[in-house]
Structure formats: structure tokens, C-alpha cells
Write a structure and sequence with these properties.
Blueprint: H1 7-18, H2 41-59, H3 64-79, H4 82-96, H5 100-108, H6 114-137, H7 139-163, H8 184-206, H9 215-240, H10 245-267
Helix pairs in contact: 2-3, 2-7, 2-8, 3-6, 4-5, 4-6, 4-10, 6-7, 6-10, 7-8, 7-9, 7-10, 9-10
Length: about 270
């Protein structure tokens, strides 16, 4: 039996896979490491969220609109629009497909259709509106919400891989790679990677003035995306009996967006 790559190699593979930052120039882990990247998705979220949060926090005092635009653009540049590509394919596939085979075929098509274009437009408009509203309340609130939302949403998106089979054959996948399910110690580590930013968010939020949040609000911020994740998983499984990489990207962005929407309604 081939020995599993160590944790350093798996983490490094996660950063290479989920970002376009030149980690690969420093070290290229073995192919086997890429089957174990899922449990470190939230850790990658620490980096991508801090990039977006820094843009909001540093630029918002001068111009809110530019701060929000910079945060969105910088994260897209950092990830290579990997998640957005998945979201567009998800909307195209499930919007235009009437059968499992048709949905999978549409999602694999590199062309973006009407559902995908409209989905991305509505997604970015909603995202920008939410971040602008939060930054208008307080740049610090907006920044720490981003730092919580990105890793937490990646943690939720990873659950799809943990509970659902892959919908295609390995050779049919875009990455030519099928993720393996995390073992118990790895799953616990994944939970910590996704929940630590939640704890940081709570601590910072309670020390941020003039905002004063009730405990139930903090619980709702975690419960809403978790419920949405469960509903999306049921919907995906019902339609195609498994997940694809596009489903993972869509799951991440939609659950993250639900956090910003919830925060906007709760804090205003």
C-alpha cells in the first residue's frame, strides 16, 4: 500500500490547487497529495479571506465602493476565478439540464451559457451590495466578517465531498483527480481550520463598537449557511447522484454569500 503524503505536502497541494499564487515555484508535491486537499480548503480560506479583508479595511476609510471592488478583484486574482467558473457551470448545468446526463454534459462544456452569465451577474451584484453595506456600517465589521465567511464556507463546501460520491469517472473529471474522504483525525483538523476563524470573528465582533451582537445572531450566522449547504447537497444528489468540482465551487460561493446576506440583515 502506497504511503499517504505527509500533512505538509497535502497543505501545500491545497494552496497550489485553490489559488493561482506561485506556491508551485517553491515546491511541487506529488500527485497523490492532491487527492487529500479537501481537508485543508478552510486553511486556504485563511489566506484568501485575509487578502479581501485587508483591501476592505485599508481602502474603505477613503472610498467604500473602491474598497469592495478591490476586495472582490483581489480574491478573484488570487484564486484564478476557480470558484466563479464552477458557479457559472453549476447554473448552466442545473438551469438548462433536464436529466443527469444532460446536466453533467453542460457543466463540462467550457462555454458559458445564459444561466451562467445571469447567475454570475446576480451573484456579484448581491456580493458587492452586501460588502458595501457592511463596510458602510464599519470597515472592521466587514473585514472580520470576510475573515470568518471564507474559511467557514469552504468547510461547508468540503462536506459535499465527505458525504457524497463523485458523479463522474476519474478520467472524466476536469482535474483528472478524485478527492478521497478525510480520515477522522484529518476531519477534526478540517473542522478546526474552519471554526477557528468563527471563534476569532466572535471575539472581535464583541469588542467592536458601536456594534453589539446578541448570542443568537452569532448562531444564526453559522446556522443559515449550514442549512443552505444541506439543502444544496440534497438538491445536487437528487439531480445527479453525486458531486462535481463545479458543485464544490458553487457550494462555496453560495454558502459564503448567505453569510453576508444574513450579516447584512442582522446588523442593520
Amino acid at each position: 500500500m502506497q504511503k499517504s503524503p505527509n500533512i505538509f505536502k497535502r497543505i501545500w497541494a491545497s494552496f497550489i490547487f485553490l489559488t493561482r499564487l506561485p506556491f508551485w515555484r517553491l515546491y511541487q508535491p506529488p500527485k497523490e497529495a492532491y487527492t487529500s486537499v479537501v481537508e485543508h480548503w478552510p486553511l486556504v480560506g485563511w489566506l484568501t479571506s485575509c487578502i479581501a479583508a485587508a483591501a476592505i479595511y485599508l481602502i474603505a476609510p477613503y472610498n467604500l465602493a473602491i474598497a469592495v471592488l478591490a476586495a472582490i478583484i483581489l480574491r478573484i486574482l488570487a484564486t484564478g476565478a476557480l470558484h466563479e467558473d464552477g458557479l457559472a457551470d453549476f447554473f448552466d448545468g442545473f438551469g438548462g439540464g433536464t436529466s443527469r446526463e444532460k446536466i453533467l454534459s453542460i457543466m463540462k462544456d467550457s462555454r458559458t451559457g445564459t444561466y451562467g452569465v445571469l447567475g454570475l451577474i446576480l451573484y456579484f451584484l448581491t456580493l458587492a451590495a452586501c460588502l458595501y453595506t457592511l463596510a458602510e456600517l464599519s470597515p472592521k465589521v466587514a473585514a472580520i466578517t470576510v475573515i470568518f465567511a471564507d474559511p467557514f464556507a469552504k468547510l461547508l463546501a468540503a462536506q459535499t465531498v465527505m458525504i457524497m460520491p463523485y458523479a463522474r469517472k476519474e478520467e472524466e473529471s476536469k482535474a483528472h483527480n478524485i478527492y478521497r474522504r478525510a480520515k477522522f483525525p484529518e476531519y477534526v483538523l478540517m473542522l478546526l481550520e474552519g471554526l477557528i476563524p468563527y471563534g476569532v470573528f466572535i471575539a472581535l465582533l464583541y469588542n467592536t463598537t458601536p456594534l453589539s451582537s446578541e448570542p443568537w445572531q452569532i448562531l444564526v450566522l453559522a446556522a443559515v449557511p449550514a442549512i443552505l449547504c444541506a439543502l444544496l447537497n440534497m438538491f445536487i444528489y437528487k439531480r445527479i447522484k453525486g458531486y462535481t468540482g463545479d458543485c464544490n465551487g458553487a457550494m462555496f460561493l453560495l454558502t459564503e454569500l448567505s453569510i453576508y446576506l444574513t450579516a447584512t440583515f442582522l446588523f442593520f
